């Protein structure tokens, strides 16, 4: 009886520890410090080299810690393990793109069966097509990716930026506006929207929610864009507005305005 009880206790403790470990892994994957997470998963992977979930945690943590080259190696190892999936290939491609290894990322994505129709797969396919200036393919992939997530703000922002780099400012403006309907607080998208509008000569700020600091930064962005287009007088006005909007915070606009007044616009950096 005693032995049975001991065995039951040991089994129960093992289950509890497994639950605690899973919870800790989840915490490390999301809110933990990226480098602490790397250390945790590296240590745990050494103790449990056959656990693919720990290897995945290590690879994802390396990406979060901005160490994509190391993450690539871990994902490549994962693909040799029992239980590896096509989703692991997609995440390898993601790490390869972050490591600026576009050629291998393309090869990895090409090895993923077409039946894998996930948001991440199409998001990465769009980025690869963009890198090769295959605009029609990129647009198709961006559109598909946007339809596969309930939070498409990021993908619309990336798609808009792609349009902006192609010279399609009007198309970019539309996509940035769409992105802000899903995430109205995303400053990167607000700034991109102002850039897209300014490159069309539309310098007034769009009607979107913004803090005083954001308003100063957006006016600064519009001002620099105006100067770049040759509308120097308008650029000066916008830079002055940026200074008046937040004089304590926005010294950059003051420096840019002084450079213009001194006749040295080439020294202005955006």
Please, could you describe this protein's structure?
This protein has 270 residues and is an all-alpha fold. The protein has a domain at 13-102 and 112-116: Alpha Horseshoe (Serine Threonine Protein Phosphatase 5, Tetratricopeptide repeat), CATH 1.25.40.10. The protein has 14 helices and no strands. The protein is elongated, with a radius of gyration of 25 Å. The termini are far apart. It comes from Thioclava indica. InterPro entries: TPR-like_helical_dom_sf, TPR_rpt. Pfam families: TPR_19. Keywords: TPR repeat. TPR repeats lie at residues 153-186.
Order of helices and strands: HHHHHHHHHHHHHH
Provide the CATH topology of the domain at 13-102 and 112-116: Serine Threonine Protein Phosphatase 5, Tetratricopeptide repeat
Helical content (DSSP H or I, runs of 4+): over 70%
Provide the low-confidence segments as ranges.
10-19
The major beta sheet can be summarized as: none
- The number of helical elements comes to 14
- The assigned CATH architecture of the domain at 13-102 and 112-116 is Alpha Horseshoe
Into which percentage range does the β-strand content fall? under 5%
- Dominant shape: elongated
* Overall pLDDT: 88
InterPro entries: TPR-like_helical_dom_sf (IPR011990), TPR_rpt (IPR019734)
TPR repeats: 153-186
Protein name: Tetratrico peptide repeat group 5 domain-containing protein
Keywords: TPR repeat
């Amino acid at each position: 009886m005693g032995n049975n009880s001991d065995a039951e206790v040991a089994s129960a403790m093992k289950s509890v520890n497994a639950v605690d470990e899973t919870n800790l892994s989840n915490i490390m994957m999301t809110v933990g410090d990226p480098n602490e997470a790397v250390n945790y998963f590296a240590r745990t992977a050494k103790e449990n080299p056959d656990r693919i979930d720990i290897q995945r945690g290590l690879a994802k943590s390396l990406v979060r810690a901005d160490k994509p080259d190391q993450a690539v190696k871990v994902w490549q190892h994962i693909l040799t393990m029992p239980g590896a999936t096509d989703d692991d290939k997609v995440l390898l491609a993601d790490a390869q793109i972050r490591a600026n290894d576009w050629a291998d990322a393309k090869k990895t994505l090409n090895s993923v069966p077409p039946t894998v129709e996930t948001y991440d797969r199409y998001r990465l396919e769009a980025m690869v097509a963009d890198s090769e200036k295959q605009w029609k393919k990129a647009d198709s992939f961006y559109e598909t990716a946007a339809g596969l997530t309930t939070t498409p703000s990021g993908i619309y922002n990336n798609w808009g930026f792609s349009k902006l780099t192609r010279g399609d400012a009007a198309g970019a403006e539309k996509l940035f506006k769409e992105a802000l309907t899903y995430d109205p607080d995303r400053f990167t998208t607000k700034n991109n929207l102002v850039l897209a509008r300014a490159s069309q000569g539309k310098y007034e700020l769009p009607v979107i929610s913004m803090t005083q600091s954001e308003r100063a930064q957006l006016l600064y962005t519009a001002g620099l864009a105006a100067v770049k287009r040759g509308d120097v007088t308008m650029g000066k006005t916008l830079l002055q507005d940026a200074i008046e909007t937040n004089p304590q915070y926005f010294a950059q606009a003051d420096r840019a305005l002084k450079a213009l007044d001194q006749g040295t616009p080439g020294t202005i950096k955006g």
